[in-house]
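Input sequence (243 aa), recorded before submission:
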Amino acid sequence: MSVDAVLSRIADIRSQIDALRGGTTTAAGSASASGEAASGAFADALATATGTSTGAATTGTAATDSATRTPSTSVDAGRGTLATGSGATGSDVVEDAKKYLGVPYVFGGTTRSGMDCSGLVQTVFKDLGVTMPRVVPDQADMGVPVGSLKDAKPGDLIIPKGEQHIVIYVGDGKVLHAPRPGKDVRIVDNWYKDSDIATIRRIVPSEAAAPTAARSVPTTGAAQSVTDLQTAALLSAMRGSAA
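Predicted structure, token format:
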């Protein structure tokens, strides 16, 4: 590629960058796409002038995209982690559990015809897209521990010592549970003290995650500095090739 062609290419790139600076109020997606196009054009011109392959630049971009890709989130309850994949919160747990108020206690049950305490818990989380184990001792290992009753949030699970029962904390000192044969699913005052409790578990986040802040657009001064450095580097490479 001749020096005149390279200089012409630089002028084109500078024109694109000037257009980007003049249109900073456009949609973020359009600005990002135009910026990527300009960067790609500059890389091509630099590679042509220095005789290097653009493969390395392409590989670097792919590696960056892979590294910044949002990891998948789990919808399975696990020990020591929150199940964030369904987007459910503790408040959603409470609201869904209230649908089963009045359902009779049936040992081993998991439907509206009848359910026991752990069957209720498993069914509620299943409704929200979260997979939970079936029995209390296994449910007591899921999620992250909550230090004490004063730290409990709606949707947390309270398991007393002996791990023979499990209740859903609904807030304001009340719990929702399937008590025992002859009773139905109900909300009652929490009768447990911290000394009675084996563990309190939080399976999903207590609140929805805050929205991610929008990426800021670089200032004109910063863009100008980057452009000047890029141009200087390209001209230096051209002089080296000419020599």
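Checked by second reader. The first strand starts at residue 110 and ends at 111.
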